[in-house]
Amino acid sequence: MKLTRQQRVLGRKFWIYLAALIVSVICVFPFYNAILTSLRTGQDLFLTNYLPTTFHWENYVNALGENGVGRSLLNSFVVATVTVGICLLVSITAAFALARVRFRGRKYILFTILCVSMFPQVAVLSGMFELVRFMGLYDSIGSLILSYTTFSLPFTVWVLTTFMRSLPVELEEAAIVDGASLWVIITKVFAPIMGPSLVTTGLLAFIGAWNEFMFALTFIISNDNRTVPVAIGMLQGASQYELPWGHIMAASVVVTIPIIALVLIFQKRIVSGLTAGAVKG
Amino acid sequence: MSHNSESLLPSAAVAPPTAAPRRKRSLQQRRARAAWVLVAPALILLFAVAGWPLIRTLFYSFTDAAMDTPEEYNFVGLANYLDFAEGDSFGVLADPLWWQAVGNTLWFTACSVSLELFFGMLLALLMNEKFRGQGIVRAAILVPWAIPTIVTAKMWGWMFHDQYGVVNDLLLRFALIETPLAWIAEPTLSMWAVVIADVWKTVPFMALMLLAALQMIPSDLYEAARVDGANAWQRFRRITLPLIMPAMIVALIFRVMDALRVFDLIYVLTSNSEATISISGYAREQMVSFQEMGVGSAASVLVFMMVAGIAACFLWINRFSHEGKEARE
Question: Which of A112, A275, B22, B132 is deepest in the core (most CB within 10 A)?
Answer without folding.
Answer: A275
